[in-house]
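[audit] Reproducing an earlier prediction to check determinism. Same input, same settings, fresh worker. If the tokens differ from the archived copy the diff job will pick it up downstream; this log only records the rerun itself.
[audit] input (117 residues):
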Amino acid sequence: MSQLNLTADQILAFAVEALEDVKGDKITVLNVGSHTDMMDYMVICTGTSKRHVNALGQNVFEHLKGQGLQPLGSEGRGMGSDWVLVDLHDVVVHVMTEEARAFYDLEKLWDIKPEQL
């Protein structure tokens, strides 16, 4: 449970909505709650360029703030990065370029079957 009594599922829904609003590609949700106490869900999304990755991360951050949730933090926003991370308490969002996503392959690292949206 997180700020303002938002459940992890509600935070997840808002985060996915924010990614879809800015045309995020290949949005994948990993349910990692049984593997770690740090979060319930990990969301991985692909952006078409570093600028798009930044816009996606910024939209997630701002959208959740608009829902009353103060994100714990983010890394890579506004830096021309190929990977932006937004920590939303029970949900962590990773937005990456196609190249970064292929290189780091977080889905394989966690070895969890992704939930298809």
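[audit] rerun output stored. Observation attached for the diff report: The helical segments are 8-21, 50-66, 98-104, 106-110.
[audit] end
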